[in-house]
Write a structure and sequence with these properties.
By secondary structure, this protein is mostly helical.
């Protein structure tokens, strides 16, 4: 066995030991915590989307434009919600 192969095996063993240590220091979140995270992400997307519906419908009723403002407001609200969820996920 060459020195390079020995170094590669030793490095793999060190990485494995580091992963084991990290797993013991930071345990996996509980099922309740995971479900809570899913709920937060869902509301982070739904609330801005519904706000877009309300604002769009209000503008359409006031101006008599059918769904001219509602459709883009839904898309903008969903985009804001997905962006907020994305930022929150990467902060966790």
């Amino acid at each position: 066995m060459t020195d390079e192969q020995k170094n590669h095996i030793a490095e793999a063993a060190r990485r494995s030991a580091d992963r084991d240590r990290l797993g013991k220091e930071t345990p996996e979140p509980s099922l309740g915590a995971r479900l809570g995270q899913i709920g937060i992400l869902g509301w982070a997307v739904v609330v801005p989307t519904l706000l877009g519906v309300v604002l769009g419908r209000t503008a359409d009723r006031a101006l008599g434009t059918g769904v001219f403002f509602t459709a883009p407001a839904i898309m903008i609200g969903a985009a804001i919600g997905f962006h907020a969820a994305w930022k929150w996920m990467h902060k966790q």
